[in-house]
Write a structure and sequence with these properties.
mainly alpha; about 0% strand
Length: about 110
């Protein structure tokens, strides 16, 4: 069984845990939607254009949905985390710009 640390994407050490969890959850939601949509479309294409029988059509839809859902989840996760890193860098830059030149940063 994988631990929670192993299931988190790489390079999230400086990001807030809640924000990473929200970004991952949103990516999973988008990946599920993409997988279901593409699975349905793959099954329809297999049935209509390739004239697959019932079992091959179901297999085509399931395999297409799983593969596309996985790929989209990975892509959306990296995109959401990149957006989170940019936002964190922007906030850190704004925070340092607000501090007086002689003051030490708050920890």
């Amino acid at each position: 069984m994988a631990s929670a640390q192993e299931s988190q994407p790489a390079n999230t050490t400086n990001l807030p845990v809640e924000a990473v969890a929200a970004a991952t959850r949103e990516a999973k939601h988008d990946g599920i939607f993409a997988g279901l949509s593409s699975g349905l479309l793959g099954a329809l294409i297999g049935q209509r254009f390739y004239k697959f029988d019932r079992n091959k059509t179901i297999l085509c839809g399931v395999v297409t949905g799983i593969l596309v859902g996985y790929q989209f989840t990975q892509i959306f996760t990296s995109s959401n985390l990149a957006r989170l890193r940019v936002e964190q860098a922007r906030l850190a830059k704004a925070e340092t710009a607000e501090q007086p030149s002689g003051a030490e940063p708050a920890v």
